[in-house]
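Practice problem: predict the structure.
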Amino acid sequence: MDIMMGLAAATQALDIAKKLREFDQDFKASEFRLQIAELYGNLADVKIALADAKAALQEKDQEIERLKRVNEGKLKTIRIGNYNFGIGEDGKPLSKAFCPACEQSNGAQIPISRGLSGHDLCPKCQGVYDARATNLPVGFKMPE
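Answer:
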C-alpha cells in the first residue's frame, strides 16, 4: 500500500468518524456497529500504509548513505579517449584506466590489468580491452 492509498483510507476513516458524531439517539445499534467496524478497517489500512511508507523511506535513506560512502571512496578521474584514469595524490593520472563496464554497472573503479598479446583484462568482470587504449598515453600532460 502506498502513501496515496493510505491518505485515501485516512480520509474515509475521518468521514466515517464525522458520520458517527452526527448519529441520532434512535440510530439502530447494528448500523452503528457496522460504521465502527468500517472505521477500524480504514484506520488499519492507514496504519499499514504508514508502516509501508516508513519502510520505503528507510530503504531509500540506507541506499543514499551507501551511495555516499561509495562516492567518498572514489578517486577523481580524467577522461582520456573512452576511458577514465584515476588521479593520484600527486595530481597525475594513474598509468592504467578503470574498467568502463564495472564503472557503469556498479560504480566500481577497477584498474585494468596487463594481459597477453596486446590485450588488457579487468580482474573483476574479465572484460578484454586494447592495451594501447587502456594505458596512459606516452607524454600525457594534465590540462591546466
